[in-house]
Amino acid sequence: MRRIAFINEKGGSCKTTLAVNTAAWLAQHRDARVLLCDLDTQGHAGKSLGVDVRGLKPTIADLLCDPAVQVNDVVRGTPVEGLDLLASNKEMARFPVEVAALPDRDRLLRGKLSDLAGYDYVIFDAPPSMGLVTTNIMLAADEIVIPVAMTYFALDGCAEIIETVQGVRERFDHQALQVSMVVPTLYRKTALADEILAKLREQFPAEICRTVLGYNVQIDEAQSYGQTIWEYAPTSKGALTLEAIARELLSRGSTVAASAKAATASNQ
């Protein structure tokens, strides 16, 4: 079971777009069983799948805050066959406050998913911030995908996230955690975007995704209808781009697994 988190501390990086559409592609085109975990108070992952998350109960907040709630109590199906959802909404805001005094507060998500079975992939959509929620996600995941919008502060933000991943690995002895891919997003043909892209390729030669996600109206339209790109416009340029990104992430599985195994062995 691969556990992949899409993380960026800045909003508007296409994190949810990539998480949702990658999860849907794996379910639809690889016949995989996929669990999508939304941990953002905005609940956009669920909304992108046509799920009305407003006032929804129970949610992933209940799973994390109530010891009596188990993962199967919260999992719900989606319109995409093979893709299940742990939904989120504004209730997620209570999580850091309610668990602040718990000694295992950083590992609550990992613990709740420890007995998870029947899935080939678990995909995490993280909130646009670094804090207790994101730490929980990093400890529950084995791989990190970092979407990086082609903006002025993109390089600094990407470097900071990689430093955070390294810090989590060392502090919590989670040596299996790897950055599997850095995905350039929201690309437009400008001198600044080309300069940022070139620096990303220079600084992260092994992690950088070969496919760049540009601005695409049909991807935005699909989300506004509560659909994935595969339902709304499966042959569009946006669909072809997202498929290429998903395929590359899929192909990196063996490399990531080997790196994690080597890291774990060297720590023993």
Write structural notes for this entry.
With 268 residues, this protein is of the alpha/beta class. The protein has a single domain (2-267), classed as P-loop containing nucleotide triphosphate hydrolases (Rossmann fold, 3-Layer(aba) Sandwich). Helix content is 45%, strand content 13%. The chain contains 13 helices and seven strands. The chain has helices spanning 15-29, 44-48, 60-65, 71-74, 95-98, 108-112, 132-140, 154-171, 191-203, 217-224, 229-232, 237-251, 253-267, and strands at 2-6, 34-38, 76-77, 83-86, 121-125, 143-149, 178-185. A seven-stranded mixed β-sheet has the order 3-4-2-5-1-6-7, sandwiched between helices. Strand 6 (143-149), helix 8 and strand 7 (178-185) form a beta-alpha-beta unit. The longest helix has 18 residues, at 154-171. The protein is globular and about 55 Å long.
How would the blueprint of this fold be written?
Layout: E1 2-6, H1 15-29, E2 34-38, H2 44-48, H3 60-65, H4 71-74, E3 76-77, E4 83-86, H5 95-98, H6 108-112, E5 121-125, H7 132-140, E6 143-149, H8 154-171, E7 178-185, H9 191-203, H10 217-224, H11 229-232, H12 237-251, H13 253-267
Helix pairs in contact: 1-12
